[in-house]
Amino acid sequence: LAIGRRGTPRKLDVPGEDLPKVVYRLVDPEQYKGQDVLVVGGGDSALEAAASVAENGGRQVTLSYRGDAFSRAKPRNRERVAAAARSGRLQVLLESQVRRIEPASVALDFQGREMKLANDAVIVSVGGILPAEFLQKVGVQVETKYGTE
Prior knowledge:
- With about 150 residues, the chain is α/β, with parallel strands linked by helices.
- The chain has helices at about 45-55, 75-85, 130-135, and strands spanning about 10, 20-25, 35-40, 60-65, 90-95, 95-100, 105-110, 115-120, 120-125, 130.
- Strand 3, helix 1 (about 45-55) and strand 4 (about 60-65) form a beta-alpha-beta unit.
- Helix 1 (about 45-55) packs parallel to helix 2.
- The longest helix has 12 residues, at about 45-55.
């Protein structure tokens, strides 16, 4: 039985998260061309989404992560994000958290102060909640494996 690692997408639990502009996975980065996009998360999915949207013409792409470094992400994804940031296509906000999502903006807590960004779309990539309890109840042993380069 292989169920992947996403499970049910983890939510931010902030006001406005139910707006239609909030999604939990990137399907096509080109759909965000010319838009102000916020990507939330610090793992490989978030870094890949942010870099892809930035590379495909997002107007202002911002990557928000609550940690102080992308330590769990693969080196190639960290470098891709760093390159997009150096080129000015991507803004990286470490030690930041979404406080609320509004129809045309998002409010973040960035290193202790509130920051408001114009926003057309939010991509939340903060992992998933696996049905571990259910699987254990039906006798399935859950073994966690982490990907490698």
